[in-house]
Design a protein that fits this description.
The complex is a heterodimer of chains A (287) and B (259). Chain A is mostly helical and 287 residues long. Chain A is 80% helix and 0% strand. Chain A binds chain B through residues 39, 41, 160, 162-164, 166-167, 169-171, 173-180, 221-222, 224-227, 229-230, 285-287, and chain B through 53-55, 74-75, 77, 79, 81, 85-87, 89-93, 96-97, 99-104, 108-111, 135, 138, 140-143, 151, 155, 170, 172-173.
Chain lengths: 287, 259
Amino acid sequence: MAEFFSALNNPDIAFLRYAFLAGLLGSIAFGIIGTYVVTRRISYIAGAIAHSALGGIGAGLYLQIKAGIAWFTPLFGAVLSAVASGIIIGYVSMYARQREDTVIGAIWAIGMATGLLFLTKTPGYVEPMSYLFGNILMIARSDLFVICGLDAAIIILSTLFYNKFLAVAFDEEFARLRGVRTGFYYLLLLCLTALTVVLMVTVVGIVMVIALLTLPSAVAGLFSKQLWQMMIFSSLICMVFTSLGLGFSYVYDLPTGSNIILFAGAVYLLAIFGAKILKRRKPQRSM
Amino acid sequence: MSEELVITVKDMSFSYNGKLVLVDVNLKIYNREFLSMVGPNGGGKTTLLKIMLGLFKPTSGEVRIFGKPPERSLNLIGYMPQYPLYDPQFPVSVMDVALMGRLGHHGKGLYTKTDREAVMCALEEVDMAAFYKHRFSSLSGGQRQRVLLSRALVGGPMILLLDEPTANVDLEIENRLYEILKELNKRMTIIMVTHDLGFVSRIVHRVICVKKKVVIHPTSEISGKLIQEIYGHDIHMVRHDHVSRKEGHNNGRVFQCPE
């Protein structure tokens, strides 16, 4: 690991430092939004949103390279398609509940199909693997500022609307009866999920980003008493996962995304297992 | 019980996906009445409750709460939903659950000291004040029910709507819950969905029978024959001696509804 820390200070491999910082900064957004995704049980929706981002990434690359529209970056395209998917799924689940899973599956696949089509028609060699499984070489200095901006937005919104988000996640119907515009908060949550997911795609990739969103929160949920504690713990756990995964992948020359996710998965399984054993040891509570 | 009308339902029908759920409902409910709502599963009890809450819109006819449509009277109604809806692992404290009942009381941002005081009062009323710091999911079924009741109370409602408050609760807790409700009834109207007709004859004034059609009976009219009519013929009577006794009876559950 000492090797990793000295590499972080090495000015010649700036990409490693950027990836490290992207992981730490992104973890804040992931912890907060992941907590909502897990408690609200919408990880499948978050999965569809993440995968639909490939459509936007492909469109962005195509328009930039083939059509010469420089401002239409892959990141911009990804944000656009992810947010659009989030809003579509949100409306479908609010107004046509029984068809929700069909639409989620469709958006998931259509996004991927569109992306692949654009990628193959983009001149030059574009590697879909980088987007699907992450590639820390793609993280630019400017990405760090974007992630910082997202963190700030998410911290402000989730503090300001904490009580309402909590009420909607716990008991949506009751929240509506207390005059909370539950539809608005649901759509807002899906949009924030879309933004969060997209910004970490470069680190862990489209396919695996969903695990990084949900596993830290699932672990934190085992011992958090309150939702805000769960957010703080999941952010910290997420930081540990990304840093460890990155360090490991640097030292042993392994794919970063896979390492991060395998760390997360292993800790999650151990935590679930540990919680089960602890529970069995505790005497049963009476009424 | 005063003669002030709190809920009026006039010629109301409701269909869901083309299927008639409630037909020609007419109800007049007066201030500080205690009513129970009985009927077979799928008979429309919860639907009627949700129409009174404004969650469902009637297909025809109208519902008025204090003369206004339900969605404009939300602050006057306290609602305690049916129990098994919650994620058992949801990380939230008793205080925070009860505070949700105060959401309608301020514009934006965080809860105030007044909100917290109102919550402590309501928790006191249901004997749960000592638990305010506990994690909601660590409570027993009966304790959770009481916290949800306090959540319905913190807004200072005039009407309390309860959907099967005694489901998943053992007999002792159930009796305690009824004592609390009896006390609350001194200052508010209560409508409660229940399968527990034993309770009905003890403190409820009238019984709303819901089976597509809706009929109100004074408690004294509730007899074995009527119960048969309400629930159909395949019901399973556990006891028979309860209905005729004038003072009612103390042993909680006397009746089970067919599944």
